[in-house]
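Aggregate trends can hide what the representation actually does to any particular protein. For completeness, the protein is quoted in full, as a sequence line and a line of structure tokens.
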Amino acid sequence: MLTHPNFDPVAIAIGPLQIHWYGLSYLAGFALFWLIQVQRLKLPHVAAARWTRDEISDVLFTGILGVILGGRVGYVLFYDFSAFLADPMYLLRIWEGGMSFHGGLIGVLLAEFWHAHKYRRRWWEVMDFIAVAVPVGLLTGRIGNFINGELWGRVTEVPWGMVFPHAGAGPLPRHPSQLYEAGLEGLALLLILLWFARKPRPVMAASGLFLIGYGVARTFVEFFRTPDAHIGFLYGGWLTMGMILSAPMWLSGMAIMIWAYRRNGER
């Protein structure tokens, strides 16, 4: 049995200014996204599509807005709407925590319409480009969750079970589900997408593969992750909100990939 190190969530404190590890995990994800995409400019088919460092910076900035705004709104709507009804200003208090990947994804999908219009690109072309490196943000974000000791897993007897100080219900070992997600939604999916995108693929294919990969990985990890306390298990005592929100992702991802390849691989 392992014990969570119970890290101080504040990485740097200078007087009243506090920089949290979770915020740094987001910054690390954004920086790594930029570096990965810049390296991909060396691929002939990426260079031929006229992607540049400046445009990568622009698409990242637009994506950051979508992640932050969509992630917060999504969390409030999907996971804590009652708190919003009781206090509408709760939506703006991002520093209190609460971000949803599914909401962030919707935010990015909407925000990148502006980028596609600005650069006169097809929206799907932009989404395919972004999808390849998105998992690196999931990797760093889940590590941030682990450092914070939040979103822990269910009680377990596996040798690597970990006691999380703030999990409640006594010092019981739990699955370190944050690390499962970092490994599957983050590192594994990133490597798969980088491998897939090393060659030209049909438009929509990379986006479809991302949706399948994330949806399947998230659904799998939900069997080990403790659902949000104020929501709990749904419909029969085993289904979770994460599963419900992920199902449309992998289903639509399959449909998108089938459609992409049925269009004879046109780019």
